[in-house]
Amino acid sequence: MLLEQFEVGPYQNFTYLVAESEGGEGVVIDPSFGIDPVLAAIDRARVKVRYVLNTHSHPDHVAGNQDVRDRTGAKIVAHRSAPLRQDLSVNAGDTIESGRLRFQVLHTPGHTPDSVLYIFEGHVATGDTLFVGECGRTDLPGGDPSAMFDSLLGQVIRLDDALIVLPGHDYGVTRTSTIGREKRENYVLKPRTREEFIRFLRE
After folding, report:
1. Check: CATH 3.40.50.20 for 2-202?
2. Per-residue confidence (pLDDT) for residue 6, from 0 to 100
3. Computed from CA positions of residues 201, 117, 108, 116, in that sequence, does the dihedral angle turn out positive or negative?
4. What's the pLDDT at 203?
5. Which end of the chain has fewer CB atoms < 10 Å from its terminal CB, N or C?
6. CA 92, 95, 96, 100 torsion: positive or negative?
7. Residue range 103-125: mean pLDDT, rounded
8. In Å, how far are 10, 53, 132 from 23, measured between CA atoms?
């Protein structure tokens, strides 16, 4: 599998190029501002980009959607509730296939109502739901700390420890992590009641 991580744009965003191999089919996850390095990598590796996978609809995660679409003909994928142009709308439990790659959709509202994770080939693209050592904000429009509790302590905490975490921003001490490491070290994943978690986020 080919997997490249790009830090692009002014907000330390991560955009990912994932393909079955050089010259094979693949996807781009969360194309941000300043997408030119990603487009160059697509050309260099001759990747046939079938889909753009958006983890959520904030502008810094979708700014490059149309550029990738124009260059490759890729279809834009997002949760059905996302307020953006979609060629393919997904729900929890859906699977997107690109060549030999399979991307499982996990709906994780909290940062936004349309936030999703994409699980594939031992990796999980977490967008702004889970960062290395932190989680996404819930005080922006559409944010919901109670929903974030359900997403993190009801779903993410149950994922396989071996999954490699691919966050949406370079906000941690490392650029990637694992679910197991985050369970051990990320203070937002420590056991709390819903009320304690909501109070913790608001503080």
Report:
1. no
2. 98
3. positive
4. 84
5. C
6. positive
7. 98
8. 30, 19, 31
